[in-house]
Every structure is written in structure tokens, then in C-alpha cells.
């Protein structure tokens, strides 16, 4: 085979160009990409809360106080009323037995009225049913159902679901008239997953034998906690002698006690809340289920579920919109026809992504190996050219 000088030079040029192009690329394997994703945050864009008190009657005062306390907390941490679904019997504030008409308190010092004038109840009284709860989760309504009473979530939504009331082994009573089973909730969550109605779900339940209610879950990205194990009761925290009944449950009390210490920009993580769930505090055995959840609870911010999305990045624009639309980077006036050809895409900085150090090292090593390969190829081709000469 005859090797010409021009042929060798052409080959040398091609290999040099290819080597240079390859050296500038960032090659990431599937495993590396998966590690990067796992190390990132929850990647949700909106937060919703579903807060349900499933009981009624005066002696269940504490259940309404439970749910209104969490309602106040998630609002304080940034979730708007338009993204909170509140379900409760609403028969306590104006009950004839209430010594403080129009109010609901969760502490014996009566320091803060949970009811007030700023609550928006979406389902009250006999609207709090198993059917409506399941329809809410799965969004199975007719066309006339109000949008304000629907859970309008998508695949980028983080949902906090809180239930309180009276329950037993794998069931929760609704209004002392019907029951929802653990399989019912599990199947509703699976429908939500299939219909891409959530990114992650945090399920919390405060009732007797609460942990049995999440044992049947099988859909991904669900974190669940309960106040008591099977055959255990869930206890109230304290009573108000002026009101005459218990005003809050122990599990919810210690949840709120911790959440009151954070604000909407807090970096406190879920494991710190779970540390409060001791037998000494709760007087029962709280349970936590994490096997369906893809993230470590040490990396999950409390505000990922109790708050709203706060991290919004605003681009710094040096020039006005009209100037940018009509001039190129060199300040030359361009026509609309050529404008699309002169516009450049914004490059995303590496710092905008939560790459871990190991992944960055892998990418750098891959780039270095490609550069060495390109250099060696060039040296070999130059050697062949001298031999042929």
C-alpha cells in the first residue's frame, strides 16, 4: 500500500480535530448520571397539603385542633390556601358546649386562636367522606366540581398528607359512619403514581394503631410516619380545664413543637423531626417507613413538604429587553430575520447543579484520557509520515 504525504497530512488533521472535539465533551455513564440524580434535591416545583380530621362531635375537639394547627404551620411556611385542601367536621368552634364561641385552641393557655377569620375549609361536615377523600387524591370528579376543591397536582408536586381521628388495625373511621382501609389508600396512591400526580408524598397519620395504615403502600417516592404501632393507642397531650376536653394529641404536639422553631428558609432536615418521636415524648411507638422513598431522610428538607418552593433564580440582565431583541453582542443592529441566527443559548454553569465531587472527578478523568489519546494518535501519524518519506 502506497502512503502519500498528503494522505498522511489529511489523516493527521482529521484525527487531531476529532481528538479535540472528543476532549471537550463530558461523557457520563448511566451509573454516574444516576449518582448525580440521587445526590440532588427533590426537584419539585410546587407544594400541596391535604389535611383531614376524620372525626366529629365535641369530645373529639383535639382532632380538629390537630389539623388546624398543621394548617396554620404550612401556611406560615409558605404554602398558599389555594394549594391546601382542608377537610374537617367544623362542628367545634360554634358548638354549644364551647366556652369560647368561635374559637379553637391547641394549648391550655389559650394563647392563639386556630380558627379565627382566615381559614378556608374546602370540605366540611358530611362532605368529609371516604369517597370524597379518594376522589380528591385520584382527581375523579365530574366537570362541574369546583377547581378550588380539587388537588391540582402534577409530576412535579410534593404533597403532604395528614390524617387524624380514630382508627384501628388497618382502618380509619370517617365521621363514625364509615371506614377507609389501608388497601384503599395504597391503591389511591398507585393511581396517583400512574397518572403522574406527584413527585413525592409525605404521609403522616395520628391515630390509634396508625402504623398499620401505611404498611400496604407499594408506590414509589412515598415517605410515611405514624403515631403508634399495632395494638397501641395514640394519646392526647393535655386538657384545658376551661374547655373541658383534651386539646391536642401528643404526636401532633411534638411535631408542631419542632416545626415552630423553623422558618420558610430553614435547612433543617426530616431526620431531626423524627428524632423527636421518642417513646418518652409520644407514650407510644411511632413508626417511620422509608423503603419506598428514594432519598435519605438526612437529605430531605422539612420545607420540601411543610413549606413551598422558595429557591427561584432570577437572571441578571445588563441590557434592556428591547435592546437585547434588536442588537447582537457587538452592538450591531440586526434584522428580525437574522436575529434568530445571532441569538445564543444561555450556558448553564456547573455550579447550578448539585454534582457530587466523585462525579466531577470522573468527568475530568474522562476528559484527560481523551486528550492523551488524541496526542498519542498525532505522534503515531507523524512517525508514519517520516517512515513513508
TrEMBL record:
Q: Which residues form the active site?
A: 166, 208 (nucleophile)
Q: What is this protein called?
A: GPI-anchor transamidase
Q: Which GO terms describe its cellular component?
A: GPI-anchor transamidase complex
Q: Which InterPro entries match?
A: GPI_transamidase, Peptidase_C13
Return the similarity comment. Answer: Belongs to the peptidase C13 family.
Name the Gene Ontology molecular function terms of this record: GPI-anchor transamidase activity
Annotated metabolic or biological route of this protein: Glycolipid biosynthesis; glycosylphosphatidylinositol-anchor biosynthesis
Q: Which residues cross the membrane?
A: 370-388
Natural source organism? Debaryomyces fabryi
GO biological process terms, semicolon-separated: attachment of GPI anchor to protein; GPI anchor biosynthetic process; proteolysis
Signal peptide coordinates:
1-23
Keyword match Transmembrane helix = yes
Keywords on record: GPI-anchor biosynthesis, Membrane, Signal, Transmembrane, Transmembrane helix
Carries keyword Oxidoreductase? no
Amino acid at each position: 500500500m502506497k502512503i502519500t504525504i498528503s494522505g498522511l497530512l489529511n489523516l493527521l488533521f482529521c484525527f487531531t480535530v476529532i481528538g479535540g472535539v472528543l476532549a471537550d465533551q463530558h461523557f457520563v455513564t448511566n451509573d454516574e448520571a444516576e449518582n448525580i440524580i440521587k445526590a440532588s434535591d427533590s426537584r419539585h416545583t410546587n407544594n400541596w397539603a391535604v389535611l383531614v380530621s376524620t372525626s366529629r362531635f365535641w369530645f373529639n375537639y383535639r382532632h380538629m385542633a390537630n389539623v388546624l394547627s398543621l394548617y396554620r404551620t404550612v401556611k406560615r411556611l409558605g404554602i398558599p390556601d389555594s394549594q391546601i385542601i382542608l377537610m374537617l367536621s367544623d362542628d367545634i368552634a360554634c358548638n354549644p358546649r364551647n366556652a369560647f364561641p368561635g374559637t379553637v385552641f391547641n394549648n391550655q393557655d389559650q394563647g392563639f386562636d386556630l380558627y379565627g377569620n382566615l381559614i378556608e375549609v374546602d370540605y366540611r361536615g358530611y362532605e368529609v367522606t371516604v369517597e370524597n377523600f379518594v376522589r380528591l387524591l385520584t382527581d375523579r370528579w365530574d366537570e362541574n366540581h369546583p377547581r378550588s376543591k380539587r388537588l391540582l397536582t402534577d409530576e412535579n408536586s410534593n404533597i403532604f398528607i395528614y390524617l387524624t381521628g380514630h382508627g384501628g388495625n388497618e382502618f380509619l373511621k370517617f365521621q363514625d359512619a364509615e371506614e377507609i382501609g389501608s388497601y384503599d389508600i395504597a391503591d389511591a396512591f398507585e393511581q396517583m403514581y400512574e397518572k403522574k400526580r406527584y413527585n413525592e408524598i409525605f404521609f403522616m397519620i395520628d391515630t390509634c394503631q396508625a402504623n398499620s395504615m401505611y404498611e400496604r403502600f407499594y408506590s414509589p417516592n412515598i415517605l410515611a410516619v405514624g403515631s403508634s404501632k399495632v395494638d397501641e393507642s395514640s394519646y392526647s397531650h393535655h386538657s384545658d380545664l376551661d374547655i373541658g376536653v383534651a386539646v391536642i394529641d401528643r404526636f401532633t404536639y411534638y411535631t408542631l413543637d419542632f416545626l415552630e422553631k423553623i422558618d420558610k428558609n430553614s435547612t433543617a432536615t426530616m431526620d431531626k423531626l423524627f428524632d423527636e418521636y421518642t417513646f418518652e415524648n409520644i407514650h407510644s411507638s411511632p413508626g417511620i417507613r422509608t423503603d419506598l422513598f428514594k432519598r435519605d431522610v438526612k437529605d430531605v428538607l422539612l420545607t420540601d413538604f411543610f413549606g413551598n418552593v422558595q429557591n427561584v433564580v432570577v437572571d441578571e440582565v445588563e441590557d434592556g429587553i428591547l435592546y437585547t431583541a434588536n442588537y447582537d453582542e457587538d452592538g450591531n443592529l440586526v434584522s428580525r430575520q437574522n436575529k434568530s441566527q445571532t441569538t445564543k443559548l444561555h450556558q448553564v454553569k456547573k455550579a447550578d447543579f448539585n454534582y457530587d465531587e466523585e462525579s466531577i472527578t470522573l468527568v475530568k478523568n474522562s476528559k484527560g484520557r481523551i486528550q492523551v489519546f488524541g496526542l498519542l494518535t498525532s505522534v503515531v501519524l507523524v512517525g508514519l509520515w517520516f517512515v513513508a518519506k
